[in-house]
Specification:
- The structure is a homodimer.
- In chain A, β5, α11 and β6 form a beta-alpha-beta unit.
- Chain A has a six-stranded mixed β-sheet with strand order 1-6-5-4-2-3, with helices on both faces.
- The model of chain A has no long low-confidence stretch (mean pLDDT about 95).
- Chain A has twelve helices and six strands.
- The termini of chain A are far apart.
Amino acid sequence: MGNQESGMQYWEDQIEHLLPGQIEARSFALIDQELDQMGIHLDETTGPVIRRAIHTTADFDYAKNLVFSPQAVEKGIDALCHGGIIITDTNMAKAGINKKKAESLGVQVFCHMADSDVAERAREKGCTRAAASMEKAAALLREEKVRRGILPPVIFAVGNAPTALVELSHLLDERQIQPDLIIGVPVGFVNVEASKEMMISRKDVSYIVARGRKGGSNVAAAIVNALLYQCPSREVKS
Amino acid sequence: MGNQESGMQYWEDQIEHLLPGQIEARSFALIDQELDQMGIHLDETTGPVIRRAIHTTADFDYAKNLVFSPQAVEKGIDALCHGGIIITDTNMAKAGINKKKAESLGVQVFCHMADSDVAERAREKGCTRAAASMEKAAALLREEKVRRGILPPVIFAVGNAPTALVELSHLLDERQIQPDLIIGVPVGFVNVEASKEMMISRKDVSYIVARGRKGGSNVAAAIVNALLYQCPSREVKS
């Protein structure tokens, strides 16, 4: 094998040889153990979401910064179990959502961030592409509702751009959207905290928000997955 | 507008109205200001990588946990400026890499994680799909080298699976790969620290590693982008 260094061999010896399926269970047990030492005990409803956000980031701040509106988790699970539509603000968040599980439930995931008409609209309006992508999603949902008479449940998952979350607040003000859940976990330094507090102030929508600066596309995807994994799989219609 | 709450209006009033292009510059200035208060001054070489990792996570731990082998940043930039190949361990990391910039340099990004032959190989071998995807990438690179006689520069970017990073260590031991840079920022609780320390112990490869448990596909993509943005764009060959 030709290992160059005893240091390398030492660390190689530390590797636990677990089967792929065992790694996640072991990780979750370690997270719960550490939370226990911090005096934090997760409840059955929000626990799976918090645990998976920590699992995705190795950052225990998510044990304290996630804010759930009443019944937010139940509404999210219900939306996904009934073949909901998920709209993300980045292709990265879309890529992080478990496709197999989503498809098994008839859940579709859309992201309009890289659409050429979104870039054009953003230029015209002087807004971010993320904000324009939410506006486009709202318009498409309205058209779909006119066409079908009824819409599947809708979840917005914002992991990157505070401007997308602010746009969702405006669309709610104007009653242009009626989502079942908004996952608001944009990350960063400019307008991030304010965009989240705007959402937390609302009484007319269910939300899961990471208070403060932290979040990310990975966290948005992790929260969606935590909800997805609580839906019993059903046969894929062919 | 029908805002429901004075709280909501208060937060809306806190929103800074910046043009899209100004948001990143403002974020970076805030990051540098905060680092300054922590007594941390970034240097010109590793600074852009550290700053972008913090920008992506809002987590200042990245000011301390990123470990760079000598000339790692220079080698990464050089590889990308010369139309390198990037191999990621997740489609999420792949999705987070700036495609326009990569294409402008002739840089290609591959992820074999979701390939059906990788799933099959992982089942046969009892390893993770992430490890099997690295093995497949190494085999494809060897074939490509036989075909072309020479390979473009290669960067592996591991943001999720410690098993992928351990596999890269084994492939290096067996001289099956000679990458220009390994970005080793898997995240989590099982084998993560050991997989990174194995890489840090090596003298035969350039690496950028996030020491400890933290990392992620978003961090891997952010590090790649920080390197990409330092390459002058060139004309896309059509």
